[in-house]
Design a protein that fits this description.
The structure holds two protein chains of two kinds. Chain A is of the alpha/beta class. Chain A is 48% helix and 13% strand. Chain A has helices at residues 2-32, 68-75, 89-102, 114-123, 142-147, 171-176, 183-190, 194-206, 218-226, 246-259, 272-280, 290-300, 333-344, 346-356, 373-378, 384-393, 404-422, 426-441, and strands at residues 51-58, 79-86, 109-113, 158-170, 213-215, 283-289, 308-312, 318-325, 359-360. In chain A, strands 1, 2, 3, 4, 5, 6, 7, 8 and 9 form a nine-stranded mixed sheet that branches. In chain A, strand 1, helix 2 (68-75) and strand 2 (79-86) form a beta-alpha-beta unit. Chain B folds into two domains: 40-80, no CATH class; 105-340, MetI-like (MetI-like fold), CATH 1.10.3720.10. Chain B contains 13 helices and two strands, in the order ααββααααααααααα. The longest helix of chain B has 40 residues, at 41-80. Chain B is globular. Classes of the chains: A alpha/beta, B mainly alpha. Chains A and B meet through helix 1, helix 3, helix 11, helix 17 and helix 18 of A and helix 2, strand 2, helix 6 and helix 12 of B. Chain B: It comes from Streptomyces cyanogenus.
Chain lengths: 443, 341
Amino acid sequence: MRTSIRRSRRLMALAAVAALTTGLLAGCANDSDDGSSNDSGGDGGGGKGRITLTIGTFGVFGYKQAGLYDEYMKLHKDISIKENVTTRTDVYWPKVLTRLQAGSGTDDVQAIEVGNITEAVQTQANKFVDLGKEVDKSQWLDWKLAQATTKDGRTIGLGTDIGPMAICYRKDLFRKAGLETDRTKLAARWKGDWAKYVDVGKQYMQKAPNGTKFVDSASSVYNAALGGAETRYYDKDGNVVWDESAGVKKSWDAAMAVATSNMSAKLKQFDKPWDQGFANGTFATVACPAWMIGYIEQKSGDAGKGNWDVAAAPTAANWGGSFLGVPTAGKHQKEAIELVKWLTAPEQQAKVFAKQASFPSTPSAYASLKPAADTTTYFSNAPITQIFADSAKTIPVQYFGVKDQPINSALTDVGILQVEQKGKSPEQGWDAAKNEIKDVLGQ
Amino acid sequence: MSSSKQALAHPASSAEAAPGTTPGAARGARGRGGPAAPDSWRSRLYRWDMKASPYAFVAPFFVLFGAFSLVPLLYTAWYSLHDVQLSALDHQTWAGLDNYKNLLSSDFFWNALRNTLSIGVISTVPQLLAALGLAHLLNYRLRGSTAWRVVMLTPYATSVAAATLVFTLLYSWDGGMVNWVLHFFGVDPVNWRESDWGSQFAVSSIVIWRWTGYNALIYLAAMQAIPADLYESAAIDGANRWQQFRHVTIPQLRPTILFTVVVSTIGATQLFGEPLLFGGVSGSKGGSEHQYQTLGLYMYDQGWIIGNLGKASAIAWSMFLILLIVAAVNLLLTRRLRKSQ
């Protein structure tokens, strides 16, 4: 009797171990295609069940904040939306790439950043639904649409926001430094050339209020200037031309002028100390793509209220912006396409602008754009809609390449940073960036 | 004091003996059973159970190890011999040893290796020395000793991310607390993130802060197992505290010290989270001149930022080989030390 109890106990333990192991393994197996768990009760029951659409984004897209998901779910009773946010793009994109190629695990809707869109168009186009057939393509700005369209005319993502350029500046600091504070007069002073903007910086530094600098970083000037250049790192045919590109040269020179003249607060954008710089008012200007408006308002807080103002940038430029695509691996393509169409429609883009000043990529929305009342007072009643719309309409078509992002970060995070923070000469910085880019391109 | 130490020492020794005895006993039992004539179904099952159960109990680990360590490890080796891009995983072209050759001729690789070594040394050595000292102090009779020990362990319990964020703010070159303190001693602000030694020192300090208490507790546990009469006789011979520490504590702790050295070395070779987060937005570069880019960071940068998975896999395997060498050197040293004892 005793032994048999013992034995059965042992057997039970064995069974438990076996069950645990298989359970764990099964858990892992399920994990890889968690899309499948979403349609439980979907089409299986015969009647119209509830469908969960997942949308993968990075950073803040503002859809949730602007209440768009709730609104869509009210319009479509059978759909619920789940947003999967990954904060950092450099974590988000590799994850999406591996899932796209595995053919499973993708969200029903997948956001794509402008820096990655060329890679997606050139290497992942067959993994995305052609959305061009579903919409009136003329709604979007030409250059925005072109970025997401393959050579044979398939559009793999619909444009969300864009990043038309302006200059945000601290009126109070400008006044203390004895500078002009009127936004139209300032815009006229630096119109056409970032070198003129640097000249204003030199003047600012002569009587700069204690502990302040003219601009947050040399890299931000570089990115802003490059955003308006005709050629970046690749030519029309996809060849790497970064070291002969006139756009790169000009933007580099502007950044070097900033880096070598003590007018930079030497911060790295999106770092904690940069946030503190906003809060403490340690720099007077920042290159200001539309999405920066919401950021400044959040990070500068009450102290900055009414002190910030917005002026037109030296050249029209674009910095940032995203797309929404529907992976063919998704479980609910039809519903996902409908959602993307709705989210990127002009009316919805205008709502996101009202909440968080992300600027629409559909010009028909421009007439009705209204920034939030808070934002308007925060930025000294500057006509930001007008300023950004003017910039948006004259942005040149730019060609991106597969390795655009790593090349860009080689120039900013290695080349410019060495000159700005380590006191290297511009030539040394350029050579360092060159080495880095060789490594990136596997040469 | 002395009795409590011995009491602590005893369970340890008996616990050590325990795992050894059971399998032996089982073997003996089977031996006594002998080649029993026609086995009944039950006894066959019983014997099968005796043989198989241990394997079933250890199986979960090995199954998981196989699925999540061994297979990826071998697959990584396969990748490292190919040209694979993150954006085209199914287009692998055979590259032979090109990725490895590429690494050997790459300044960035040697730089990362050097950084890993130097950061490893300046974080491991002070950390272990400090841990030894702290453990020695905690070994004295102290008011609220448990509280002190718990406090020692708190840095280890903090997440790397949280700790590094705080340190990043402390070390920020404009308005950071470290530079603010230095300023009272007339030292000019140091750009901790971009200077060569400053950045390595800063990264090391995060590692030291996190792991010192952990190692101190390991040393403390070992110290408590040292018989008190050794100290008593040393005291009778006229040895002071410091001499007792040098001639009694340290020799007795030798195996423990070796263990912590091995574990810390492995940790130092794989250093990744601290420098990545310390670097902020483009942390995988380890600074504008790659001043604190460790091998782990270089692998991450190649694989997930640049998208060159073949080369990243080659780095991963190089790291693995380096760890094997480190382990071999440690083994040799251990043998030497044992012989000399």
